[in-house]
Amino acid sequence: MKGDTKQMVKMSLVNLIKFGVYIISELSQLFIICWSGDKLINNSMDTAWKLYSCNWEGTSMSLYKGSGRNGKEEYRCPSDIEFMKRMILVMLRSQKPLRITALKFSVLSLQSFTKVRTTEIYLN
Asked: Minimal CA–CA distance to 31: which of 120, 121, 112, 122?
């Protein structure tokens, strides 16, 4: 009887270790996906500001290569009306961030990873 109990404890310890490794690997995979989703949200939110601050309303009418300061070549953005309209549309679209969702149920971001982690700690 004593030997059976010792073997059950040994098996349950092995199963506990397996379960711990499984949970750690699942959480690390979820973290990587949520981190990527968070980077996507942040970068897509920055798009409008970066486009606005890149001198898209330049003075030239077409893309050309000219000599700039110190003899270096510089390229200027086209400033025709069609280009400006397209830039405005891109800036308007980039006001709403891109998101990775899980079946349209949850947005995958670091905030949702934190919620999963807190729930997991709460359930233990």
From this structure: 112
